[in-house]
Design goal:
4-stranded mixed β-sheet; about 575 residues; 20 helices; alpha/beta; Alpha-Beta Plaits; 5-stranded parallel β-sheet; Tumour Suppressor Smad4; Rossmann fold
Length: about 575
C-alpha cells in the first residue's frame, strides 16, 4: 500500500492528502516547476508529479517527497518558511546529522509581538469607501514589510487563486494577494486585516443608517463623533451627553444612539427650553389630575412613555436648578413620582440622551448647573464641532442639492468655494440650508462667482462679513519672512518644552525635526492658521501638495495645534 501524506497548510482549513508511490517524486509548491527539480542531484531521477498549493506562505518550489525502502523522504527545496514534519504519537523519527533541525510539537508558527491594525480610512461616502480601505490596508501591510497587491473590485469578480477576497459593506470586495513568498506571520496579519475590514463594515453600515435619516457624515471629525455614539450604544451605557452649537446635528446623533441600543422601546424627545418649570416637571414625570392649574386629567410623563426605550432631553442646560435634583434621583435610581402624587414612587427603565449648546462644564463650575448632575450625565461626552471645522460636510451637502441641471457644488466657481470655506457659519447647517435656497435657480456649471456667493451669505448674516482675500493673494502672502517666523516659533517651543536653548544630542535633533519643524512646515504649506480651520478640504490640499497620505497630515497638524494650545494655556 502506498504511503499517504497529509499536508497541512497554514491558512487553509482542509489539508492536502497525497499518495506517494514508488519511483515517483511529488513536488509541492505555490507555482511548482518540475524542470528545476529534475536538475537537482539530491532528488532521485524518475517521474515527478506536481501538487500546486495556492497559499502565499508556500514557496514556488517548496518541498519534494518520495518513497525509499518503505519510508517517506522529505526534502525542503530552500523554501522561505521551511518544511515542518509533525511526528505522530508513539512513533520515532531518525533525523540526519545536520545543523538547525527544529521540531515543533503540535503548535503552529506564531508571529512575534502584536501589530496594530490599519489606520481608520478617511472616506466620504460609498463611492470612495473601498478605495480608502484598500489604501489603509496596503499602507499597513507595507509597513509590516509584507509584499502584497491590494485592490478593490466588484463582488464576485475573478481573481488569482492566491488572492484573499473580503466583502465590503458598499457591495465591493477587497482583494489582497502576496506578490512574493511571505513569512509565517502572514496569516496572523491577514486575520487582523479581516477583523479590521469587519469593524469598518460595521461602522459604514451604522453611518448609512444615520445618513438615511438625513444627516451628513462626510468629514472625518463628524464620523468619529458618530462612531463614539455608536460605541456608547453597543456598550449599553445608560446615558450620553452630546454638546455642540445649535444646528450641528445633535438630535441625529441621539437617534443613532437609540437605534444601536437595540432595545426596541420608544423614542421620546423633550425640549427643556420650551417649557415652564411646572410644565417641565409634569412633562417629564407625569401629573395627577388637579396637580396644577389646567391639569384636568391624569397625565403620563415622558419618563413613563419612554420606558424600555430612550428619552432625549434637548437643551438640558436650560433645565431649572430646582428641577435638577428630581432628574438626578431618577438617573441614579430609576425612580420618580408624578406631580401631585407624593409618596407614590414609580420605576422606569430608560436610557437618557441629553444635548446642549451651552458649556455645561463652565455652568457647573459657576453654580448654574448642579455638579453632581453634570457628573452623572457626563458618563460619555461627545462634542459636535461647528460646521466651519468640518467643511467636508458642507461640501457633501452642496453636492446633494440641485440648482436645476447641476448641483450647488458644481455651480460654484473655485474662488467662490473658497469664500464658503473661509466663512465662519455661525448658524451652522441652518445657515447653509438658507444660503443654498438664496442661490440663483437654475444655474450652470461654474456660473456662481464670488460676488454672487457673498451676496447670498450677507443676506442672512447677523453681523457684517469680514473682508475676503482671494486664494491667490493669500498664497502670495506666504513670504520668506513668514517661514522664518514659523521656524523661530518652533525653536522657541522646543526651548520652552526642554529647557535648553538648542538640541544637544542626535535624539534631540530627531525630536526637534519630527515634533516641531515638520508640524510647523505642514501648517505653512497648507495655509492652516488654526485648529478650527483644520477640515477635510485643507487636509486634502496639504496631502496633495506634499504628496503624503492624509493620516500623516492629520497626525502632524494635530500635534502642531495640540502643542500650540498647551503653550497658550501656560501663558
Amino acid at each position: 500500500m502506498a504511503p499517504r501524506l497529509i499536508v497541512d497548510v497554514q491558512g487553509q482549513t482542509e489539508p492536502e492528502s497525497v499518495e506517494v508511490i514508488d519511483s515517483e517524486v511529488v513536488l509541492f509548491g505555490r507555482v511548482p516547476n518540475i524542470s528545476e527539480v529534475t536538475s537537482d542531484s539530491s532528488v532521485p531521477s524518475g517521474s515527478v508529479r506536481s501538487v500546486a498549493i495556492a497559499s502565499p506562505g508556500v514557496s514556488a518550489n517548496h518541498a519534494a517527497v518520495w518513497s525509499s525502502n518503505g519510508e517517506l523522504v522529505v526534502r525542503d527545496l530552500s523554501s522561505r518558511n521551511g518544511t515542518w514534519v509533525r511526528l505522530p504519537r508513539g512513533t520515532t523519527a531518525r533525523l540526519p546529522n545536520v545543523p538547525d533541525i527544529r521540531l515543533r510539537l503540535g503548535i503552529e508558527a506564531r508571529g512575534t509581538g502584536r501589530e496594530p491594525l490599519p489606520e481608520r480610512p478617511h472616506y466620504t461616502d460609498s463611492t470612495d469607501f473601498g478605495a480608502r480601505i484598500a489604501e489603509a490596508v496596503g499602507a499597513w501591510l507595507n509597513g509590516q514589510h509584507v509584499n502584497t497587491r491590494v485592490w478593490v473590485g466588484p463582488e464576485g469578480s475573478r481573481t488569482g487563486p492566491a488572492a484573499t477576497p473580503m466583502r465590503l459593506a458598499n457591495g465591493e470586495s477587497l482583494f489582497v494577494e502576496a506578490t512574493h513568498t511571505v513569512d509565517e506571520r502572514f496569516h496572523e496579519r491577514m486575520a487582523r486585516v479581516c477583523r479590521y475590514v469587519a469593524e469598518q463594515n460595521a461602522l459604514f453600515s451604522a453611518e448609512s443608517a444615520t445618513r438615511s435619516d438625513g444627516m451628513i457624515l462626510a468629514s472625518a471629525v463628524m464620523r468619529l463623533a458618530h462612531q463614539r455614539v455608536v460605541e456608547a450604544a453597543t456598550k449599553h451605557l445608560p446615558s450620553l451627553l452630546v454638546m455642540g452649537p445649535s444646528g450641528t446635528g445633535k438630535e441625529w446623533l441621539a437617534k443613532a444612539y437609540h437605534r444601536h441600543l437595540g432595545r426596541g422601546g420608544p423614542w421620546v424627545a423633550i425640549n427643556c427650553a420650551m417649557l415652564t418649570r411646572e410644565r417641565l416637571v409634569a412633562d417629564l414625570f407625569g401629573a395627577e389630575k388637579g396637580a396644577y392649574t389646567g391639569a384636568q386629567h391624569t397625565m403620563r410623563g415622558a419618563v413613563e412613555c419612554a420606558s424600555g426605550g430612550t428619552l432625549f432631553l434637548d437643551e438640558i442646560g436650560e433645565i431649572p436648578l430646582d428641577v435638577q435634583p428630581q432628574l438626578l434621583r431618577f438617573l441614579e435610581t430609576g425612580e420618580y413620582q408624578r406631580l401631585g402624587a407624593i409618596g407614590q414612587t414609580r420605576v422606569a427603565d430608560v436610557r437618557v440622551v441629553t444635548a446642549t449648546n451651552r458649556n455645561l462644564r463652565e455652568m457647573a463650575r459657576g453654580g448654574t448647573f448642579r455638579e453632581d448632575l453634570f457628573f452623572r450625565l457626563a458618563l460619555e461626552v461627545v462634542e459636535v464641532p461647528p460646521l466651519h471645522r468640518r467643511f467636508a460636510d458642507a461640501v457633501a451637502y452642496l453636492k446633494a442639492q440641485t440648482l436645476g441641471p447641476v448641483s450647488a457644488y458644481e455651480a460654484l466657481q473655485p474662488a467662490a468655494l473658497e469664500i464658503l470655506r473661509s466663512h465662519s457659519w455661525p448658524g451652522n447647517f441652518r445657515e447653509l440650508i438658507n444660503f443654498v435656497r438664496r442661490l440663483p435657480f437654475p444655474a450652470d456649471v461654474a456660473s456662481l462667482d464670488v460676488e454672487c456667493v457673498k451676496r447670498a451669505i450677507e443676506m442672512g448674516a447677523h453681523t457684517p462679513l469680514r473682508s475676503f482675500a482671494a486664494p491667490q493673494a493669500a498664497a502670495a502672502s506666504q513670504s520668506i519672512a513668514g517661514w522664518t517666523a514659523s521656524l523661530q516659533e518652533s525653536a522657541r517651543a522646543f526651548t520652552e518644552d526642554f529647557e535648553r536653548a538648542t538640541p544637544e544630542t542626535w535624539g534631540d535633533v530627531t525630536v526637534f525635526i519630527e515634533q516641531y519643524l515638520k508640524p510647523w512646515a505642514l501648517a505653512q504649506l497648507g495655509g492652516v492658521a488654526s485648529a478650527e480651520r483644520l477640515d477635510d478640504v485643507s487636509i486634502a490640499r496639504v496631502a496633495e501638495r506634499i504628496r503624503a497620505d492624509r493620516g500623516t497630515v492629520i497626525k502632524q497638524l494635530g500635534r502642531y495645534f495640540e502643542a500650540l494650545a498647551e503653550r497658550k494655556a501656560r501663558e
